[in-house]
Amino acid sequence: MFLRNSIVAMLLLCLGFFSVSAAEKNRFLKDDPESIKQYVLQTQWDIAPKANAIVLFERAVYSISKDAGGFYVTRTVHSVVKILNKDGVDQADVVVPVGFSRTHAVEFKKVKGTTYNVEDGKLVSQSLSPDQIKKDVVRNGVMSERFSLPSVKEGSVIDYSYQIEEDMSSFFSWDFQEDIPKVYSEVVVMYPRILNVGGIAQSIYAFEKFDDTKKNVDDASVPLAYSGSVEALERDDVGMHWVRRNIPAYEKEPYVYNVYNYTEKIDIQVSGIYNGMGNGNRWGTWDKATEYLYKNEACFQSLSKREGFLRDDVERLTKGQPDDLSKVKAIYGFVRDSFECTGHNGIWHANLLDKVYSKRSGSVTELNVLLVKMLRMADLDGNAVLLSTRKHLRLVEEYPLLMRLNYCVCQVKLGDSTYYLDASSKNIPFGVLPMDCYNGYSSVIDRDNSEAVNLDPAMLVEKTIVAVHTTNDELSNYQINGTWSFGWSGSIRYRSQWKKDSMEIKKYVLQEVKKMPIDASLIDYSVKNLDESDKPLVLSINMKLKFSQADHLMISPCMVRSFSENPFKADKRYYPIEMPSAAVMSFILYLKIPKEYKIGSCPESVVYRIDDRNQYRYVIDKNTEQNTIQLRTDFTMKDARFDESKYSQLKSFFNSMIECQQQMLVLQK
Amino acid sequence: MPAANAGTSEINPDQMNKPLHYFFGAVFFTMPFLSQAKSGNEPSYAVNNINKALLTNASAVVRHYDQDVEIVATNEVTNRTHIVLTILNEKGQHYASAIDFFSSLSKIKKMTAAAYDANGDLLYKVKESDYITRTVSPQPGHYDDNKIRYYDFPKGRFPYTIDVYIEKEEQQTFFLPSWTPQESGDIAVENATFTVVTAPDYQLRYKGFHVADAPVIAGTEQRRYSWKIADIAASPEEPLTPESRLSRPCVLLAPTKFEIDDHSGTMTSWSDFGKFIYELNAQRDILPEAEKKKIHALADKLPDNHEKIRVLYKYMQDNFRYVAIEYGIGGIQTLSADFLCNNRYGDCKALSNYMMAMLKEVSIPANVVVISAGETPRMKMQTDFVSSQFNHAILCVPMAKDTVWLECTSTDLPYNYLSDFTQDRNALMVTPNGGVVVHTPVYGVAVNKVVHRATARINDDGSLDVTMNNHYTGTPAVKVFHATTHVSQHELDQYVSNKFKLPGYQVIKSEYKHAEDAAIMTMDETMDISAANMVSRSDSRLFVDADLVPVGIGVPVATETRQNPFFFPSSFAVEDHFEIDLPANETIEFLPEPVTASYTFGSYSCAVKQSGNKLVVTRTLQQNSGVYEASVYADFEAFVDKVNSGNQIKVVLKHQ
């Protein structure tokens, strides 16, 4: 499925318009008991053969207005949902989300709900009563509203609507595609002309311009995706609406960090006010957005201030360093090791650096901006980079959707090399960010420079090597050594566990010994580089193997496997496959066969390829004179993201690799 | 779920008891060291002062946990708690909160908190505006007036110490506070005290766990009970440890006379307790006339009471759903049948009450049973300590020759079948004559069972064509039901593709059938698969992995002698029968030896033989529920090893 991002260009062009009131009339056949009854009796919808419920109609109108308190938004939502089976009844328990409202009290209005059933052949309706609507305090003073519709069961149709007034948020979004399918979904955005509004529409169809005032939405000529301008006849506002029809539910799949990166939705942002004060385009482009943040957010403002209190530390850390790279490492080490991270990772409302410095603690943004500042004071080319982490929605080049920003790291350029640093994370090697930061498009934040940066997860290469060799080949006391050299991610994970509790090392060792294909027992083990974040963690295990006395022995020479099963088993794939990183995993075996046995049959060498960047090599060599077996397997995956069209190739590649790993070596007496 | 702190009730015009507030006069209670959180440096909080032995296995250490409870009247209880907790490392960070709950029948009168560094120097005091107050559970379909007030301390430089003081007032004595200074196994405790003060003639009941008996100081103006513990070590994190606060030092309190929201009663016996619950919920079973007609239309024509109950239970499952509405006393008092009839939703006690009302209409008496539901033994009812311990309600219908049990919140479970949520435990049946302790059905290995029957043929290319007919009953069937019912085709496809731990397989066909009329939850699974990597070929031999449906068990390896007991929440059995067609021109050269193992906690057997031109594998695996001593864990590890080695069903065939 090809999802396209189109910019929601809220221009003042009217390419055919409809009025709000006309729109409402044509939308859903209200006050039409016969049609409603048909919907109650209907049990199947073609677009949703196995759904638990289906949205027959939904419409949200975001209308921005202004009063003495400032801008506020009136959000009106109307939904009609058909319950298809018992597992769909929880659609009737509604929670109305509310944003944080400071200048305007949150008001819920016009909450209405009706359940329709058919009893003894007759349409029966039951309304939601006001005492069934519950207001909650969500956090200090901020309310939400919830209600549960009555008499809902398999077959029911529920119809509810509500209106909320609250402070205008600069960001709002509408999901066309959710966990149940939808026949019709529409969003309307109305706003005063002085506002600069833009955003991104994510959909598999382009939104055609279409005027639907004369058509029934069931009419086959009505496109599956269309949009048009909106004019409010009562006041001088403009707006647009988007309609999507026949949308399937999204699918749940593994190796997807956030499914909403692939679902159909609209994200809207108020990016400026044309009020003659130069605020017309605060956030309409990446350049403008980063410039605004740089000048207006306290923490980023520190980058352009003189921060005398850092002078002594910078001088002390850089004095006597042989080169710029050493200076960077010294300053980075200082911030990473001397400051605690509070765990907060948002980019907004971060403190000025003097506060961070005096408390010796700060959020992710604060610590990394401090790092950038100190690098700049050492005349190094440091910049703050804003990004969204992987479980968050991805940033897009087409439009700066600021609600998606949730993390800040440091970039430093030394000649031709660029390094990315995160001083808030302990235990990670220099030049590596936490895995979640590699989420594609990111932006440098600077006064004059919003350089786009692509933090591709393929930049991370998890390189793991396991080597096993015979240390004593006497059958009665056969011993091997296995040495694990972990990649950066494994090193980070195990280092933090093992430093906290040394018993965890032994647990890990015993698990590995248990996994050996021959009856193995532990002799001893040792760990290297436990305290050196910049080096791979290395674990060495000495084991004794017990061979059975059979005439024929079957051993898999691939004693330590990266993949014990295929991670891709389903037949179909809907979304791209997102791997944590690139990977190179090698296994090296040198096995001296006990003299009581000789090598019978031996597996064949083989190479499997998806392409030159992604392949598996299995190279085995038997030496009958010396009675040894040498095996080297190399799994190389240089890409961290695969389009869904490559799925069957990936699946087949892993199947082949796992089958190959199963190959048996036969020893006979 | 009953609210822990019930607030104002729905209007109950037929109040059984006029409230009598038992005031105990002015009870002067002074606890000079139990005041609000400290406000200056506290050198005694320095981490160096902690006994080194308490740091082992600990993520946090309670330096002080001082709680005092004053039962002023049957409708007034003051609870003051002062906690000083050192957070040692990242694993302890989630304990770093000042937090308490309240509702319409309770108030948090004071909450203060501060943070200190490793030396005991004050880092900061929490500002009033930093506390968050909100609804506890603003989730869909759940409505109550329970609120939470809290402050989450941000991560600091470890170790650091938090100092929290909370003062709360309850306007009821149905639920009395308890004392749990060691909230979790990875928290060590330096010092903790608990003091309860009542009027001289108030009869407090209490039950202590892992604490010395309370000395009681009886005076003319007050009676005081005190408990104290010191130097309680944290316990290591070990797999399968039963999680229960009762396995750590704690004291439970219960009243004799009590009051809650203008209702009063006594709970000196389960009979009394049950009587109170019965009377609180009585007269709420009046059905509208139209509904009565419907019920008679469904049931009257059926000759047998079992059939009547079954048809009415199905009526409830098809037409009602779970929505919890528990304002005020709504945690223990049901909504009326009238309300449910109108809205067709309710919580566990309202649905059970409604079911009871429907059965009453057709002259079948039934009783609501209040129960502690969830994974045992955490939720085990303390039958020797009468108090409110329940979080769920089901229905019990005593019949002439047997008893029918109904889970009224489930739209899927069979008639007269309880899931593992409520199986095999003591509970309290609420009758017009009072409460009676009962035990819910035990479904052992005969019910919780999986039978795998698979046949296979070896193809020339080494793949296996396998046909499975698997039969699930009881808890295993419930799991399969939820994984395969009302899910999208893609979800189902992912389920069947990932289900079996075979080296590689492709599903050709799969089908699931739910036996709707079966007495216990039953699912049948039919599957045709093509399995790869099960057969390896050499010049002279064929190596066959004959484990067509792997049922391995795993457990993390223990590194030291185990300290905690271990438990299995339920019993189940697996029975396997596999047949593999032997290819022509192949004879069996090697068959693995039979393996058996039998212990109190489980048993296993696996045997492979030739029968005609087939390889036949028969295997059984059984787990027995229960709590087992730590000393038995080594046997369990040996059992796991035996099972895993027995499951290496590798057969060698020789070419003829």
Automatic annotation (TrEMBL), chain A:
UniProtKB keywords: Signal
Domain (Transglutaminase-like) ranges: 315-380
Pfam families, per database record: Transglut_core (PF01841)
UniProt keyword Signal, yes or no: yes
Signal peptide: 1-22
Domain of life: Bacteria
Protein name (Swiss-Prot/TrEMBL): Transglutaminase-like domain-containing protein
Species in which this protein is naturally found: Taibaiella soli
Higher taxonomy: Bacteria, Pseudomonadati, Bacteroidota, Chitinophagia, Chitinophagales
UniProtKB/TrEMBL annotation, chain B:
Stretches assigned to the Transglutaminase-like domain: 299-399
Residues in DUF3857 domain copies: 75-234
Source taxon at top rank: Bacteria
Protein's UniProt name: DUF3857 domain-containing protein
Species per Swiss-Prot/TrEMBL record: Taibaiella soli
